[in-house]
Specification:
Number of helices: 18
CATH topology of the largest domain: Rossmann fold
Catalytic activity: ATP + H2O = ADP + phosphate + H(+)
Oligomer: single chain
CATH superfamily of the largest domain: P-loop containing nucleotide triphosphate hydrolases
GO cellular component, one term: cytosol
Subcellular location: Nucleus
Shape: globular
EC number: 3.6.4.13
Radius of gyration: 23 Å
Helix content: 40-55%
CATH architecture of the largest domain: 3-Layer(aba) Sandwich
Number of strands: 14
Structural class: alpha/beta
CATH class of the largest domain: Alpha Beta
Strand order of the largest sheet: 3-4-2-5-6-1-7
GO molecular function, one term: RNA binding
Largest sheet: 7 strands, parallel
């Protein structure tokens, strides 16, 4: 049975597994990277979200593993729990005919259960750096000893993992793995940042084939698809919720699936509660939610049980979310690349979509930076007018928001994070003494 995937050098069983999942045509990043990884090269792959990066690194790793199915074979690190869960699901599905064992090591789940799973020597570990670092620092040799023999390390969404936020945990994770000359290191990213470029230009590792680096052509030249309509709306900060509600219930958008991106978890929670009070089918996704709730929110949105998903940037990357018609940047990020990732949730695979930016006075320079980055001027959004907002939405939205804030205060929303930050500060001062 000849197929394009077989021609790339993948095992017969894996080609059959891909076909069973209706994956028959390799994407550009898969065609470029799979043969090189199979030849033993380290690899840096740059391609947009939705271009098949997981199979680009997963398929060659699974092929190599099936030739010698030993203990812990590969570690995949990624910035968010949801992305880790998605990758673990894909590995499990692809390797199901070969009895593959995949351990998911993320926050919000039982540390004890994870330690037991790690002791069973899974073939692949998919983890967020913080939780894996916790096991490395606190669990015994039985739990983490297998990591010392791993053949592969993957950094998925590498541009995020290489920022200061993850620096300390990432260093802890890498410290227990074999040295770089004895493992293959695969970096995949949707944005080739300066940190990624530094690694691209690093000197060759002695005794290893040269690093293979590949960016899907014109990745940056076409930062956003031509089918994406980009608009902005000037909004006074104190009435943003009313404008949002007016757009979501406007005749043009009242059936549309939408993701609303915010910069802070508290904003996400206030908006979710406010819109819910106003009978909008809404779910949210942010770091202060228990893991089970985060998973449920994603399932509800994917199944269209919720029409609107309010999210921090936990949802801007990599997640397999079906057709979204509208993305609203309720808060503007200071990083123009974040706009590209957020907007990338709509107008996928040739479909049309729309991105609306709420622009408060302090956001003007951020919008100019985004326009420069995407090489396109945004049009002004004209479907909702101030008079309609004041007449139809302002009063009831204000009441709903007030009730939401009161219920959050009653429930001590954010208390868990405050305790965690306090504990973290104590831990840091203890270590520095």
């Amino acid at each position: 049975m000849s197929s394009e995937f077989a021609n790339l050098g993948l095992s017969k069983w894996l080609v059959e597994a891909l076909q069973a999942m209706k994956i028959t045509q390799p994407t550009a990043i898969q065609k470029a990277c799979i043969p090189q990884i199979l030849q033993g090269k380290d690899c840096i792959g740059g391609a947009k979200t939705g271009s098949g990066k997981t199979i680009a690194f997963g398929a060659p790793m699974l092929t190599k593993w099936s030739e010698d199915p030993s203990g812990m074979f590969g570690v995949v690190l990624t910035p968010t729990r949801e992305l880790a869960m998605q990758i673990a699901e894909q590995f499990t599905a692809l390797g199901s005919s070969m009895n593959i064992r995949v351990a998911l090591v993320v926050g919000g789940e039982s540390i004890v259960d994870q330690a037991i799973n790690l002791q069973r020597k899974p073939h692949f570990i998919v983890a967020t750096p913080g939780r894996l670092a916790h096991h490395i620092m606190n669990s015994g040799e039985d739990t983490i000893g297998g990591l010392k023999r791993a053949k592969f390390l993957v950094l998925d969404e590498a541009d995020i993992l290489l920022t200061d936020t993850f620096g300390e945990h990432l260093a802890t994770c890498i410290s227990i793995l074999p040295p770089k000359e004895k493992r293959q290191t695969l970096l995949f990213t949707a944005t080739v940042t300066d940190q990624v470029k530094t690694l691209q230009n690093a000197p060759a590792v002695e005794g290893k084939p040269p690093l293979f680096s590949y960016e899907v052509e014109s990745m940056d030249k076409v930062a956003i698809p031509s089918t994406l309509k980009t608009t902005y709306l000037l909004v006074p900060e104190q009435v943003k919720e009313a404008y949002l509600y007016q757009i979501l219930t406007n005749a043009t958008y009242n059936e549309s699936s939408a993701i609303i991106f915010v910069n802070r978890t508290i904003t996400a929670e206030v908006l979710r509660r406010t819109l819910k009070q106003l009978d909008v089918r809404v779910a949210s996704l942010h770091s202060q939610m228990p893991q089970q709730e985060r998973t449920n929110s994603l399932h509800r949105f994917r199944a269209n049980a919720a029409r609107v998903l309010i999210a921090t940037d936990v949802a801007s990357r990599g997640l397999d979310i079906p057709a979204v018609q509208l993305v609203i940047n309720y808060d503007i990020s200071s990083n123009p690349d974040t706009f590209i990732h957020r907007a990338g949730r709509t107008a996928r695979a040739g479909r049309s979509g729309e991105s609306i930016c709420f622009v408060a006075p302090r956001d003007v320079s951020r919008i100019q930076a985004i326009e420069e980055r995407i090489n396109k001027k945004m049009e002004e959004f004209k479907d909702v007018h101030d008079t309609a907002v004041i007449r139809k939405a302002l009063n009831k939205v204000t009441v709903a928001k007030r009730e939401s804030l009161m219920s959050m205060e009653k429930e001590n929303f954010g208390e868990r994070r405050r305790r965690h930050e306090k504990k973290s500060d104590l831990h840091k001062s203890y270590r520095s003494n």
